[in-house]
Design a protein that fits this description.
The complex is a heterodimer of chains A (313) and B (482). Chain A has 313 residues and is of the alpha/beta class. Helices cover 48% and strands 11% of the residues of chain A. Chain A has 13 helices and 8 strands. In chain A, strands 7-6-5-4-3-2-1-8 form an 8-stranded parallel β-sheet. Chain B is globular and about 65 Å long. The chains are: A alpha/beta (313), B alpha/beta (482).
Chain lengths: 313, 482
């Protein structure tokens, strides 16, 4: 595929469909075997240290509960700024990710720390609302100070082949979310096949997503390594044909340091070090941070402390 | 920021290598009566690992006699279910001692620990488990009721998968009721000798398995021994021919698993990322020391650039180095002699006008190393497109139509394996019916399973190993008229 063809593919449903269905297929067995092989990489000592700090700096520390309160969010923001109060060398996380109504609270709590505020929008997590509502949701979060918007695609439209509708929605949300960065959640657990994951990834990138994100965290399975592999291949190929680099965010189900390190290994060996920064790779996670801190302390002191020595939030 | 992986070496402490090894005959380690001891080295460092006995003709004779005694006295009469129990026991011990076997295999052979740990040893155990199940079900092997064992099998295995090839040979032979004398390759005898200890640990009756170490002369003595009923050989086509000549006119049966020059065929509708993985796995797995390696890549011309770009990028991520490092993808070449052959054929490739390419790759100072290498611009007539290199060297060719792909793939004296990459199921079946290769992989490569028969067409040999078909190599047809 050449760069020249890309601008035209979204002119109508048929062209978009032809383009997305013309992407090379994904062999499920092969993709899963490759992911499993990369999971056997053994990351020790200095490289583990580096990976843990890098992973911490890539976290979108997330709380997306109906029971969220300003108090809970303020606590989370304090944790985001200083994940380990006992060790000032611990990097801060990349962002705090909340529902739109708590953006202002988070923004205030984070101040000039450099930690971003990300807001889920567009009738997250189902996306089942009219475009008008989705855009209002988005604008509301941006107005409250969100630096990043995490939107969901309309999986129903995608699965029924209305690609242009999905495309146009993303374009509209992108416009509404400026100047915030836009992450597009594919909800890969509902897309079911890797071919669909690849198509949805391309669709989002064609619609000018800054990041593509696996999941809302509300659907199982959420982020899996083979899905990440397919998405990484997509951003790699997209950059090769358009010159534009798009970030990737796996979210949901990544709870242990080991898991996070496997993700970083996959980034390293699929797209390379250019994606190994919080500008281009994020983890959407709530409990991951504490396991990373536990492992970080273990590396520094030589022994495990225990959950009571890591703050809850 | 670069993500450098710190060294992650597997510990050698788990394996206890003796200074010297005798021959395993009649259930015991014995000194060789003739022959000169030789050293086995670690190809990644050239460090001497152990001294190994060379079995001379009289030692081979002792081993065959021990096998005959065990066949007529014990093993041939044992209730089939009891034979199965021994094989299950061996399988379990192989699993229990898996790490030890994996470390030893990587030390002696040079292959990455990831492969010995994740492929060689588990697949070897799986072979014993699989054939253990056959031991009391031979009536259903498709060879008529009550098929009979052949007797004493002389088995000669190569250095590329020492333990795995041992299991391919010994498991079906024993399940069928034969006894064996096995000769491992001279550069990789150690896991076979450890397997001898496992036979002791399993209380296998003495003489059922005998291991004689040595080089070509030991092999010749075994093949030519008059009391051997069956010769099973895996190795080069050249030696295979010599074996076929040696046993011609004798009642000995033979199965030969020889060389290959497999085509890995990538169509324009292939899942490209997985095809690239398959190409890498096809030729760089085990440093290309694989008889069924996909050493010829046939790419459809309209996706040539895309596939080659991806392939080059992927080769740039391969990690070459210490075989015991858990992150190593490419280990050492098994011997100085093999390295010389790979170099020679690669030089020929260049002098014939093909373009040689390797990713930036630092080779260790000691030991035998060759970087992953691609040749483009080679013709079907190039020697690197015709001869088996048995190293990490891929020759890239192109085709335009399915007919041309089949014609080029079959245009080789060999016929061991082939790979087809396309998302179109009907094309896979069409291709598989026309490719003259014992194994055709579809959208994968170098996958082995004990239930699946493996073997060649043409100069890649005859007979099948694995599966129900693999039993035929060690049984004669039973029932009326047998």
């Amino acid at each position: 595929m050449s760069t020249g063809t890309l601008p035209d593919v979204s002119r109508d449903d048929a062209s978009l469909r032809a383009f997305l269905h013309g992407l090379p297929g994904v062999d499920q067995v092969g993709a899963e075997a490759r992911a499993a092989m990369l999971s056997t990489r053994s990351i020790k000592t200095t490289s583990k240290q580096w990976a843990i700090d890098t992973a911490i700096s890539m976290i979108d520390l997330t709380t997306l509960e109906g029971a969220d309160t300003p108090g809970k969010v303020r606590n989370l923001c304090a944790k985001a700024r200083r994940p380990d109060p006992g060790d000032p060398t611990t990097p801060q996380v990349a962002a705090v990710c909340v529902y739109g109504d708590l953006v202002a609270t988070a923004k205030e709590a984070l101040g000039d720390s450099g930690v971003h505020v990300a807001a889920v929008a567009t009738a997250f997590p189902s996306g089942r609302a009219s475009l008008t509502v989705k855009l209002a949701d988005t604008k509301d979060a941006v107005a409250a100070g969100a630096d990043e918007i995490d939107m969901v695609i309309d999986r129903g439209a995608f699965l029924s082949g209305r690609y242009l509708q999905v495309f146009e929605e993303i374009v509209a949300v992108k416009q509404a979310s400026a100047p915030a960065h836009l992450k597009v959640i594919l909800e890969t657990g509902e897309l079911a096949t890797y071919d669909n994951v690849r198509r949805a990834a391309w669709l989002a990138m064609l619609a000018d997503a800054d990041f593509i994100k696996t999941s809302t965290g509300k659907i199982s399975p959420a982020a899996t390594l083979p899905v990440l592999l397919v998405m990484l291949e997509a951003v790699r190929d997209f950059r090769a044909s358009t010159g534009r680099q798009v970030g990737v965010k796996p979210a949901g189900g990544i709870r242990t340091s080991k898991d996070a390190i496997r993700h970083l290994v996959m980034v390293n060996e699929t797209v390379g070090e250019e994606w190994l920064s919080p500008d281009w790779f994020r983890f959407g996670a709530s409990t991951l941070l504490n396991d990373l801190l536990l492992q970080r302390q273990k590396l520094a002191t030589g022994h495990y402390s225990g959950p009571d020595y890591i703050t809850l939030d | 920021m670069p993500f450098d992986y710190a060294p992650a070496p597997e510990s050698r402490a788990i394996v206890d290598i003796k200074a010297s090894y005798g021959l395993f005959i009649g259930g015991e380690f014995t000194d060789a009566t003739d022959g000169t001891p030789f050293k086995t080295i670690s190809p990644s460092s050239e460090e001497v690992l152990a001294e190994v006995s060379e079995a001379g003709p009289s030692d081979v004779d002792r081993a065959v006699k021990a096998a005959r005694r065990a066949y007529t006295g014990v093993w041939g009469r044992l209730a089939p279910a009891e034979r199965g129990k021994y094989l299950y026991r061996i399988a379990r011990i192989v699993q229990e001692r898996a790490r030890e076997l994996a470390v030893l295999e990587s030390l002696d052979n040079g292959k990455p620990i990831r492969e010995s740990r994740d492929v060689d040893v588990p697949t070897a155990a799986a072979h014993f488990f699989y054939y253990a199940g056959w031991a009391d079900k031979l009536d259903y092997a498709g060879l008529g009721p009550a098929p009979r064992p052949l007797g004493v099998a002389g088995q000669i295995i190569p250095w590329n998968f020492p333990l795995l090839m041992l299991s391919w040979k010994i498991a079906p032979a024993l399940a069928a009721g034969n006894t064996v004398v096995l000769k491992p390759a001279e550069t990789t005898p150690l896991t076979a000798l450890l397997f001898a200890e496992i036979c002791q640990q399993a209380d296998l009756p003495p003489g059922v398995v005998n291991i004689v170490t040595g080089a070509g002369e030991t092999g010749r003595a075994l093949v030519e021994h008059p009391d051997v009923d069956k010769v099973a050989f895996t190795g080069s086509t050249e030696v295979g021919r010599a074996i076929a000549r040696a046993i011609a006119g004798t009642p000995k049966k033979a199965t030969l698993e020889l060389g290959g020059k497999a085509a890995n065929i990538v169509f324009d509708d292939a899942p490209i990322d997985q095809a690239v993985e398959g190409i890498v796995n096809g030729i760089f797995f085990n440093q290309g020391h694989v008889c069924c390696a996909g050493s010829r890549l046939l790419v459809q011309e309209n996706v040539y650039d895309e596939v080659l770009d991806s392939l080059r990028r992927r080769l740039g991520t391969l990690r070459l180095g210490d075989p015991l490092d858990k992150n190593t993808d490419i280990g050492a070449i098994n011997s100085a002699a093999q390295l010389a052959r790979i170099r020679e054929l690669s030089d020929v490739g260049e002098s014939e006008g093909a373009q040689r390419w390797s990713p930036p790759c630092e080779l260790p100072e000691h030991g035998f190393w060759f970087p992953p290498t691609l040749f483009t611009g080679a013709g079907q007539s190039s020697r690197i497109a015709q001869e088996e290199i048995f190293g990490p060297v891929l020759t890239v060719l192109t085709f335009r139509t399915p007919e041309e792909a089949v014609a080029k793939a079959n245009n080789t004296p060999y016929g061991l394996s082939a790979g087809v990459w396309t998302e179109k199921g009907s094309r896979i079946l069409w291709m598989a019916g026309r490719l003259r290769a014992g194994v055709v992989w579809a959208n994968t490569f170098n996958r082995f399973d004990p239930t699946s028969p493996f073997g060649g067409y043409k100069e890649s040999g005859f007979g099948r190993e694995g599966g129900r078909q693999g039993l035929a190599a060690y049984l004669t047809r039973g029932g009326p008229g047998a």
